[in-house]
Amino acid sequence: MRAMILEAAGQPLRPAELEEPVPGVGQVRVKVQACGLCRTDLHVVDGELTQPKFPLVPGHQIVGVVDAVGDEDAGSSPALNVGTQVGVPWLGWTCGRCSYCLSGRENLCDEAKFTGYDLDGGFAEYAVVDHRFAFPIPAGYPAVQAAPLLCAGLIGYRSLTMTGEAERLGLYGYGSAAHIITQVARYQGRRVFAFTRPGDVASQAFALEMGAEWAGDTAQDIPEELDAAIIFAPAGELVPIALKAVAKGGVVVCGGIHMSDIPSFPYQILWGERSVRSVANLTRRDGVEFLALAPQVPVRTEVELFDLEEVNEAISRLRTGQIQGAAVMVVDHAL
Ligand SMILES: [Zn+2]
Ligand SMILES: [Zn+2]
Fold it and tell me: Which of 81, 111, 176, 177 has a beta carbon 3.0–4.6 Å from 156's, enabling a disulfide?
């Protein structure tokens, strides 16, 4: 099968011809239709996440169709049927036995395996996945539109839930996750304030189009205090900036898996019961909830399409802030 593989950190992905994978016990094989590119993929390529398998097929926003089912072990729930269209997210396997798994926090499982990191992902014609960690795609979503829901949508949604009932919501870094979460937040009756890199008027216009009531860059004065902020950009210097923007009792949620160092800041801007927290990974429950909510909103994703072999081009465009919305690799052109 065709695949794009990463052999070492800091290298471009390279095209490879791999054996078609065979699903094992409890697994299904997915014929990949499309796979979204996520900023986490850049952190893997750049070596900022340090423990990937090599060689690796990256990609963890997979949409495809189950085309083979592995043997089931006794007592497991039925595997997904051949022909079912599924989405495969970052969380690929958990132990099911540790204190995190047993308390509804499988996102924190120490033994967790992640798609496109510990497990081969979706920048290939086929992916083999644990059937318990694949979600049926809601009706009405073409594969390329559904792909960004699998991480930008899902982890964005988990970040949004961490803001509680916050009405005035700031989004820092206006890419794939922010454009999805703007729509969900508006649907929930919240007000969205979008922050971009200085001078990025194209993303500011895009944010307003998606439903933000204000868009500007982080150097600008904001029109009013925020109740919460979500930082999607991997820039630690945004944490004190966002803390200064939130009202007393407000939370600043860091939605990314990697961030540059956070500069020191005066206690005064944390005082007043403000808090800073991270969001790590996702639970399957987040997946089920968000994929039920997305068609109700309805969430529409803005995508820029690339061929599988163009993934390095997509990576460099995402890195330099040139992707409006989400970058998606089209793997199967017979969609
Ligand atoms: Zn991701
Ligand atoms: Zn566990």
Answer: 177
